Amino acid sequence: MTTIRKRILATQFAAKQLEAVSAKKLTKVAKKLLPTEQQIQNAVMDWIRLQKFNFYLIKKRLSLIDYAWHTPNGGSRNIIEAKRLKDAGVLSGVPDITIAVPSRQFHAFYMELKSSKGKLSPAQIKFAHNMKSVGNYYCVAYSVNEAIEFIKAYMGDMLCTAQ
């Protein structure tokens, strides 16, 4: 079993174990076991790296990772770097994962990842509205499994790999 597959399975297993415990019963130790947004991000991108798809205009299998990326907008930055990035066109509220493959219904796929208690910022809500208003797919996932299900639903029968 590959390292990527092991990491995906470990994150999914931990999430399933903790889903069974009610939020009120979570101890401090158990709360530390909940996957962070970064761990969810890594596992989802690992899963994407394993996927192949058929696009109706191209007669060969393509790697999904060649059409998907993470936009690293989050994190703290010093004032000078933040201004430099803003001047360069960095947009607040851009979601974590973009898949630039049109589906039968949408132009592109945007997914924001959140930990179990994460909430969308006003900038993220605005971005979601803007993308949906021009025919793009936008979703928010709170676990690896949920993120994978959103991608599978979006890609539909284009996906070749059932992992």
From TrEMBL:
InterPro entries xrefs: tRNA_endonuc-like_dom_sf (IPR011856), VRR_NUC (IPR014883)
Domain VRR-NUC: 35-145
Hydrolase keyword on record: yes
Keywords: Hydrolase, Nuclease
Protein's recorded name: VRR-NUC domain-containing protein
Necessary cofactors: Mg(2+)
Gene Ontology molecular functions: hydrolase activity, acting on ester bonds; nuclease activity; nucleic acid binding
Pfam families registered for this protein in UniProt: VRR_NUC
Keyword Translocase: no
Organism encoding this protein: Candidatus Dojkabacteria bacterium
Highest rank taxon of the organism: Bacteria
Matching Gene3D superfamilies: 3.40.1350.10
